[in-house]
Amino acid sequence: MRLLTDQDIYQITVKQLREWGHDVMTVKELGMQQASDESLLRKGRETKRIFITRDKDFGALTFLKESLSTGVILLRVTPLTVESVHRELNLLLREHTENELKNLFCVVEPYRYRIRHLQEA
After folding, report:
1. What's the total number of domains in the chain?
2. Nearest to residue 60, comparing CAs of 80, 47, 41?
3. Residue 92 belongs to what domain range?
4. Verdict on whether the full-model pTM lies above 0.90
């Protein structure tokens, strides 16, 4: 799966995603650490990658500016919950195709994940 991770995603999560075999690009690798949230969503759409973040602001932005979205996964994770969130994230990525996830806003938290469908632009 093609993923773009925000600067707030733990390095251990990026490493785990890559170990699971996903094609992960980070905002830092693109030199976009200072980019606006809209620019990050636009980059995800342009590169056909699902955006992964810990920033709750992307929830509102995704639904207000649906034309920017390519699918967003919001991780509700802390250092103490990283293992249980990783289990749920892995489950989400195995149970849904990349094309499905591009039309979803997902919240992954300890022991569960939730999904909301995005309107097609």
Report:
1. 1
2. 41
3. 2-117
4. yes
